[in-house]
Design goal:
The complex is a heterotrimer of chains A (796), B (293) and C (155). With 796 residues, chain A is α+β, with helices and mostly antiparallel strands. In chain A, β14 and β15 form a beta hairpin. The longest helix of chain A is centred in the last third of the chain and has 28 residues. Chain A starts with 5 loop residues before the first strand and ends in an 11-residue tail after the last helix. In chain B, 57% of the residues are buried. In chain B, 39% of the residues lie in helices and 22% in strands. The termini of chain B are far apart. Chain B is an alpha+beta fold and 293 residues long. In chain B, a hairpin with a 2-residue loop joins β8 and β9. With 155 residues, chain C is an alpha+beta fold. Helices cover 35% and strands 14% of the residues of chain C. In chain C, α3 crosses α6. Chain C starts with a strand and ends in a 6-residue tail after the last helix. Classes of the chains: A alpha+beta (796), B alpha+beta (293), C alpha+beta (155).
Chain lengths: 796, 293, 155
């Protein structure tokens, strides 16, 4: 049994099931990618560019020659296949060849007998760089004559959505706003790591913490000049991901080093390197105008979105597509004009992070709704209820909501959740005040505020992507007991997917013992663990495979029982195949040969945008509302979040324990963006690449989260369940900042909110007005018009 | 690769000899500062001088009106054992990192690193502490406000080690406050210590993380001392006028020499110090008045 | 340099520890005890928390030589030290997601309960403030400590 194979008992769909990998994790036995070991393995280290934009003048490796313990030093010329990879487009070099486009871009990799020797060798490489101009501001990237970060220019994608005519919308009241959100780091606790083991067939086995094994392979194999079947990926223990492991980091480097040296090579990033080793959440600038009639009917939304994609495409085009389609919020708006642009800059590449474009626009549209409520003199919750989407209505992109859309329900449910108990202003414990044990207030300056936000997220991939789920379920005898085994390529990254898949098998087959095999590329591609999609997609595949296994058991039971089966409907339960409720055959007696079935689950097909941004682009949606209560020390600008109340559209709750864990954890990441998290840059260089300077919430920063699930099953989806991983994060930032506005009366148009802004020392983020929309050939990502090679699309 | 020598003296005399013989070796007490630098590759020491085995450094004791705290006394020990004698120092120690950090980190280590953000420093300044340093030849004391000579630089000679700190026992109310952008585990954006010394009529201040070194707000001290003496306020214990509190706060704020950095802005630091000064003085004076009842 | 220490009750010797290596590296890289995690190298995250001579420390901030002769207890040895209740409480309360922070949190929770058998919420927050968790939002960790404190009553 490998480290990740897991055996569990107990827990069916809908029950509170504890994690199947819980005991290995609490006892330290669970093997994460950074824990991997092979005898004789080498250790890799990476030379990264110290600056954000430069031409490589020379790379002198002579200082490394003869260094003790150094087995290989590889540069761009050593990349066996093509020196480009990428999720949406292969625009990113494995190792920089002519220029570097961001600080931290890999330039050379070393393998040596110890990490210390590898790093010492990296230090001996002499990299001579010729400075190039750089673009570090997303508006400057759009300016005439700006330095071109990529050959295709600086516009990575522009999406235009137009419905009706906002100028003739008949609005009585208009409110306008400008909003900014910062670059956020996923800050998964487990840094990037993996182990590449060269194989006898000339291929390589890579053990790695990732979110999508097959998409990794799709990008790795061409760079190694190997056929897919010679690049075998195996999932190592994943120490959190939140989007940061969707892109390639150390995978190709480790494989190259292993193939060159003929020895296993482990590459394991430290915290500082991790900040350079993965993409971040896009910083955004958002201009919005909302128009409403006097009675509170939202009739027009105009939005201009600008996202900083950084130096390479990653999944930016898809992030922008999401942001644009969600920019008007979960509201019914007849007249809409949305223009979104994501640009290349010489900042660190941005890509996937929990929420995928939605948290940024939610921060904007929810602030606008509050502004509108104030302008109209309507209660903000009321205003949201009046304009909430519902089944049968459509998004600005024209997509009609055909499935479950309990927007009103999440709003009403959230508003009705209990408020925190009243507290006296004086005499609280240290953590009853902003600043905690810092002892900065004993009640002075404290103002309480309440904020509310609603948001939503698409589930699974959009814009025509057929990201099918796939799973194999095998039932066999172990001793006298039937055991079910699940084999998928689905990644468990901590969110609890495997526990859920086991619950599904128990429910469908009534078999208690379920084994989840280590995920690898020997299983069929089942898509990414992202986009809140795996409960639906891999869950759906497991459910289908179980149905096929059940059918096979029924067939065996019928042929064993002969006429005894009659015409009764068959079922499984308590170890028996039953006919019309009466035992027909023991399942154990039907398993001389194991039953094994593989199933593929497709979600409904989606379409693409037309030239007005109209299209049925998303599969289905999960909605969420949160209410935040905060205490602000308005003199010092410090915050204590007192309580968050969350009502989450779950379709159907498959595991209450897992669900509330997602809501609380997702809320914490939204709280981080509201109050403290920002990757700070100076000329593209990260100034705070450590956990000392990049602050994420501690246990002293997180309030209790009171959560409620709204269950309105999604038709045509396994158990009607929706993923809940992202929606809490999306609304938390908006709700908390709304509460801060309520407490202070300040504008607070930038997340994270700084103490300076809360204390009135810094004016709101300012704008000269939205930049003009760039001239692009169409709605597709710009590199597509230049026939750039595609990334993960090839998989589907 | 840099070859590092590891030195582990078992006694104080051995430690001083090792220091004299290896002036480039970096002294390490709890390691909570030094190893952060080593682990991030910012420090490649030719030698590491571990003071963890020097038992003499681990003790503390009272002597007349003062407490001598050995350099190796940990933050946890300051909190649990010295809360009564040195309340502001205990409060400051409680804001350092987390329990495992406080279990290892020491008062002497804090001084050795001499970061402008070191949490204990403002308290030592406000209390009028003296740092006791020694070489194999001689021992001397340095007033806390002369000990910090630059960012992460102190008055320690190349052959000297910190042996302990002499801190007057609290004879009046004290406070320490630290501003950070999260509610635990944070390096100070700025901090302020205030100590009232009714027996001598003195007022002590210490500002952290708002200048190249921890600073005293001397003008603020002098202003308040003058005011309290002039009005006989120590005796009458009457409430302080708003204008006095404001003036004191303004002088504290002006004493700072902050910069903009990743943790906070210059402007905010000055502002926050004004707020902290106002609040701290209010709390301390109130405590002083209450204690008399 | 040679470092001898007792880890989870067993005498262990490492012959080739680097002078500037840490206890964390000794445990993980030299002794193969990977239950103790490396996530920040700065004492900010608590993932590397162990007992050193009975005191809770961040092993990434202890030099290998400083641990020479010491008794170290890691998460792997915690059950033998009677911590099964804490570990079980973390699983049962749902306080584990990705689990990377869990070994450190289990150590810190165990230490808290050893000093304070019935901690309040604020005691728990102060004691565990140095253990970053990115998955759970901490509420279930608070629940787990309460559960471990009084295993008979489930929160």
């Amino acid at each position: 049994m490998t480290a990740l194979d897991t055996v569990v008992a107990g827990g069916r769909v809908g029950e509170r099931a504890t994690r199947l990998d819980g005991y290995p994790k609490v006892t330290g036995q669970f093997a994460y990618a950074s824990d991997l070991h092979r005898d004789g393995m080498l250790f890799g280290a990476t030379l990264r560019s110290p600056v954000a934009s430069a031409r490589i003048r020379s790379l002198d490796l002579s200082g490394v020659a003869g260094s003790p313990g150094v087995a290989a030093v590889l540069v761009a010329a050593d990349v066996p296949g093509k020196n480009r990879f990428g999720l949406n487009f292969d625009d990113q070099p494995v190792l920089a060849d002519t220029v570097v486009r961001y600080q931290g871009e890999p330039v050379a990799v070393v393998a040596a007998s110890s990490p210390a020797r590898a790093w010492d060798a990296v230090g001996r490489i002499v990299l001579e760089l010729e400075p190039l101009p750089g673009v570090f501001d997303m508006e400057e990237a759009l300016a005439d004559g700006a330095h071109r970060v990529q050959e295709v220019g600086n516009v990575l994608r522009h999406v235009h959505i137009e419905r009706g005519d906002t100028r003739s919308a008949g609005a009585d009241v208009w409110v306008e706003g400008y909003y900014e959100t910062a670059m956020q780091d996923q800050a998964a606790l487990g840094p990037e790591a993996g182990l590449a083991v060269p194989a006898e067939d000339g291929g390589v086995d890579l053990y790695v913490a990732t979110q999508w094994l097959h998409a990794d392979r799709e990008q790795i194999a061409p760079c190694l000049d190997l056929p897919d079947e010679k690049v075998r990926l195996h999932l190592a223990g994943v120490g959190g991901a939140f989007g940061s492991r969707e892109d390639i980091h150390m995978q190709i480097h480790a494989c190259m080093l292993a193939l060159r040296t003929g020895r296993p090579v482990k590459l394991s990033y430290g915290r500082e390197e991790s900040f350079h080793g993965h993409v971040h959440r896009h910083p955004a600038r958002i201009w919005m105008r909302h128009g409403a009639t006097r009675d509170g009917r939202l009739v027009a939304v105009e939005a201009r979105l600008l996202f900083d994609g950084g130096a390479y495409a990653s999944s930016s085009p898809a992030v922008l597509g999401n942001a644009a389609t969600f920019a008007a919020g979960p509201y019914d708006v007849p007249h809409v004009r949305i223009d979104g642009t994501v640009v290349y800059t010489n900042n660190p590449p941005c890509g996937a992070m929990r929420g995928f474009g939605a948290p940024q626009v939610c921060f904007g549209h929810e602030a606008q709704m509050d502004k509108l409520a104030r302008a109209l003199g309507i209660d903000p919750v009321d205003l949201r209820l009046r304009n909430a989407l519902e089944p049968g209505l459509s998004l600005p992109s024209g997509q009609v909501l055909t499935g479950s859309a309990p927007v009103r329900e999440v709003i009403a449910r959230c508003a009705a959740l209990p408020m925190p108990d009243a507290e006296p202003l004086e005499g609280r414990g240290a953590f009853g005040y902003p600043g905690g044990t810092g002892n900065v207030t004993r009640g002075e300056g404290i103002k309480r505020g309440v904020g509310f936000a609603v948001g939503f997220k698409n589930i699974a991939y959009s814009e025509g992507f057929d990201d099918a789920g796939s799973a194999r379920v095998t039932v066999r005898l172990e001793g006298d007991e039937p055991v079910a085994e699940i084999h998928t390529a689905a990644v468990e990254m901590g969110q609890g997917l495997y526990t859920l898949l086991a619950q599904i098998v128990r429910t469908e087959l009534d078999i208690d013992r379920v084994v989840v095999r280590q995920a690898d590329t020997a299983a069929r591609n089942t898509g990414s663990t992202s986009a809140s999609r795996q409960s639906m997609m891999s869950g759906g595949a497991v459910q289908m495979a179980c149905a096929q296994v059940r059918a096979a058991l029924f067939e065996r039971a019928r042929s064993q029982a002969g006429a005894g089966a009659g015409n009764h409907e068959l079922s499984v339960g308590r170890g028996w195949v039953n006919a019309g409720g009466h035992p027909l055959a023991r399942v154990a007696d039907l398993l001389d040969e194991p039953v094994s079935r593989e199933a593929v689950y497709h979600h409904r097909r989606t379409g693409t945008f037309d030239d007005k941004g109209q299209g049925d682009v998303h599969v289905c949606f999960a909605f969420a509302a949160e209410r935040a209560v905060v205490d602000v020390d308005e003199d010092l600008g410090l915050v204590r979040v007192v309580q968050v109340a969350a009502a989450i559209d779950a379709g159907r709750v498959l595991n209450p324990l897992g669900m509330s864990g997602q809501v609380e954890g997702g809320t914490a990441q939204g709280l981080g963006l509201a109050l403290m998290e920002e990757v700070q840059l100076s000329d593209g260089a990260i100034r705070n690449a450590s956990f000392t300077d990049y602050l994420i919430p501690t246990i002293a920063d997180m309030p209790p989260v009171v959560s409620a699930a709204v269950e309105d099953p999604e038709p045509g989806v396994p158990y009607g369940a929706k993923g809940v991983g992202e929606s809490p994060t999306i609304v938390a930032t908006a709700a908390i900042v709304a509460a801060l506005r309520d407490a202070t009366g300040r504008e607070l148009n930038r997340a994270p909110v700084s103490p300076d802004e809360l204390a009135g020392l810094r004016p709101p983020a300012a704008t000269q007005g939205p930049p003009p929309c760039p001239d692009v050939p169409g709605q597709d990502p710009v590199p597509l018009y230049f026939q750039s090679g595609s990334g993960q699309q090839r998989l589907m | 690769m840099v070859q590092t020598t590891f030195l582990q003296p078992a006694s104080w005399p051995e430690a001083l000899e090792a220091r004299a013989a290896n002036p480039d070796a970096v002294p390490v007490a709890g390691g909570t500062d030094v190893l952060v630098e080593v682990n991030f590759g910012r420090l490649h020491p030719s030698g590491l001088l571990d003071l963890g085995r020097v038992r003499e450094l681990r003790t503390w004791g009272r002597e007349k009106g003062r407490v001598r705290v050995g350099a190796g006394v940990t933050y946890s020990e300051l909190i649990t054992q010295l809360r009564g004698d040195l309340p502001a120092l205990a409060t400051a120690a409680r804001t350092v990192g987390s329990p495992p950090i406080r279990n290892r980190g020491t008062l002497g280590g804090n001084l050795g690193t001499a970061s402008p953000a070191g949490d204990c420093h403002p308290v030592l300044l406000a209390c009028g502490a003296e740092v006791e340093v020694a070489s194999s030849r001689v021992s001397r004391t340095v007033p806390a406000d002369e000990f910090f000579v630059g960012p992460k630089r102190n008055a320690l000679g190349a052959d000297e080690l910190i042996s302990g700190v002499w801190i007057p026992r609290a004879t009046g109310p004290q406070s320490f406050s630290k501003v950070g952008t999260r509610n635990a585990m944070v390096i100070a954006v700025c901090s302020l210590a205030l100590a009232l010394h009714p027996d001598s009529g003195r007022v002590g201040t210490g500002i952290g993380s708002a200048g190249p070194v921890p600073l005293r707000a001397r003008e603020a001290e002098a202003f308040l001392e003058g005011h309290l003496a002039e009005r006989g306020a120590w005796e009458s214990k009457r409430p302080l006028e708003e204008a006095v509190v404001d003036r004191f706060a303004e002088l504290v704020s002006q004493a700072a020499a902050p910069i903009d950095d990743v943790r906070g802005s210059l402007r905010y630091r000055r502002h926050a110090l004004r707020v902290l000064a106002r609040r701290s003085l209010g709390w301390c004076w109130n405590d002083y008045r209450e204690a008399a009842r | 340099m040679k470092v001898s220490l007792t880890v989870n009750g067993a005498r262990r010797t490492v012959d080739d520890a680097g002078e500037s290596e840490t206890l964390l590296q000794v445990l993980r890289d030299h002794l193969g005890l990977t239950g103790t995690k490396n996530a920040c190298e700065q004492g900010e995250c608590g993932s590397c928390t162990v007992y050193l001579d009975g005191t809770l420390v961040c092993s990434c901030l202890v030099l290998a030589g400083q641990a020479d002769g010491a008794e170290v207890t890691t998460v792997e040895g915690l059950s033998a030290a009677g911590a099964a209740a804490v570990q079980e409480a973390f699983v049962e309360a749902g306080a584990v997601q990705c689990g990377f922070c869990t070994p450190g949190l289990v150590m810190a929770a165990h230490d808290l309960l050893a000093h304070n058998p019935d901690p309040g919420d604020d005691d728990i927050r102060e004691a565990l403030a140095g253990n970053l968790c990115r998955c759970t939002g901490y509420q279930k960790i608070v629940d787990a400590v309460h559960r471990a404190a009084s295993p008979t009553t489930t929160p």
